[in-house]
Amino acid sequence: MQTLFRAVRWLCMGFAAIVFLGQLAMVLMRYLLGFGFLEIQDAVAYAFAALVALSVAVAFDADKHVRVDVFRQYWTERTNRNIDTFGDLLLAMPVFALMLWTAFPLVRGSWAILEGSPETGGLPGLFLVKTCLLILPGLVLLDVLRRLIRVLRRAIA
Predict the structure, then answer these.
(1) Domains of the chain, residue spans
(2) pTM, whole model, 2 decimals?
(3) How far apart are the first and last CA of the chain?
(4) What is the phi/psi pair of residue 151, to 5°?
(5) Is residue 101 over pLDDT 90?
(6) C-alpha angle with apex 75: 71 to 81, nearest 5 degrees?
(7) How far is CA 148 from each of CA 82, 109, 135, rounded to the nearest angstrom?
(8) pLDDT digits (tens, 9 = 90+) for 118-135
(9) What mean pLDDT, rounded, does the chain reach?
């Protein structure tokens, strides 16, 4: 499981590099050379969309996601673990399961037509980017299940 999230983390770093270098190339070409490439613009947009989607799962796995810690600092570790468990059960699982359920028809339709860029002459492969809408909730649900199994093992032991 850690290998999977490590691979996704590296993929996110690659997407971040594509966004940075692609945007830099577009700006330099447009303002210094007076022309640009739609393909680079699409590559940056695709990489940014995939980066945003996949980085949610990476942040969730690393326990670096956004949370309101106003009270957390005053509570015991056990109380915080219990709140995290209830949050996983009552919030994360239903929300990401619903996301997986509702994104599936969109992604299936995109794959059926091998959807490409909406721009004329743009990059093909938009269906691959939309697949991140299934990968994101899948990874988060795997992580939540891993956490819940860890809690159950701790409770049994």
Answers:
(1) 2-156
(2) 0.87
(3) 22
(4) -65, -45
(5) yes
(6) 105
(7) 11, 33, 20
(8) 888 889 999 999 999 999
(9) 93
